[in-house]
Amino acid sequence: MDQLDLQTANQYRQGFKRFNPFMIWLWRLGFRRYVNCWPRPGGRVMVITHTGRKSGNCYRTPLNYTIVDGEIYCMAGFGHQADWYRNILAHPQVEVWLPDSWWSGLAEDFSQAERRLPLFRRVILDTGLVGPLFGIDARKMDDVNFDRAIAGSRLVCIHRTQRLTGRGGPGDLAWLWLPVVGLLVLVYGLLRFWR
Asked: Which stretches does DSSP call E strand in the chain?
């Protein structure tokens, strides 16, 4: 995002890195639909699982996205330096956690595609308030200024290959709510008994 100076961009990047684990926990605890309940301000959020280009470890990153003609599009707003973006270039096989489903897929850099500009615009519109936070108003900017504003960003298309089910996906820790609620009820009951 060219409109931000380097220091501000790094602060935003670090802020997202600190917030991302919280977002992953929300998905794992079964709140994926609630995360996406108000997309106008909060954006449309998915989680992408990717393989580290050097470590080979599995990583999860929450991203804003849009769906056009059945394909999932997202962007690396911090450009080629985004870790998840560099990882998918090295290992394009990914998993995608959407609010209503879980998929395996193949990621492809779409940054130079002929029809990239309207796709970038759709993704930014689906970021909610994040786009304007970075100084990009996709509703009002003309194509020339919009293209200039996203010059450093990367567009990624994820082609879904197979719907997934089973363990290890979104909501895998939702079972924790039963013991947590049980413990809270027990503590509340004991406190009322001892009064």
From this structure: 45-51, 58-68, 71-76, 93-97, 102-109, 154-163
